[in-house]
Amino acid sequence: MTNAERQxxxxxxxxxxxxxxxxxxxxxxxxxxxxxxxxxxxxxxxPSGLRWSDIDGCTTLAEYRLELEDAQGALLTxxxxxxxxxxGLSREEAIAVSAVIEIAEIIGAIPPQPRTLPExxxxxx
Length: 125
Fold this sequence. Notes:
Blueprint: H1 3-19, H2 23-43, H3 52-56, H4 61-70, H5 74-80, H6 91-106
């Protein structure tokens, strides 16, 4: 692909974002990032020392994604479980999860709730 073609595609993407045509894709991207963040948490040990996947039986990201997508509201419920302070999530994970909650609030699916993102990255175990 030539530089001119790349620039043309980039300008088209910017126009689509500005016009709102890309909103659905942006929401899907936010949902994917939230699922990845929840999966990262899911793979860490629970307070009992077991991984959450050993507790709930979802051993792959594909299984976990299917579980969240099968039940209406499951992704939003999983995201809201971390309110108000996103305990246990890294800052990047908290931002991804918070984005899904914010999208739901904006479209009026749920009333807004207070939330506090972590200031610093959480220490790695």
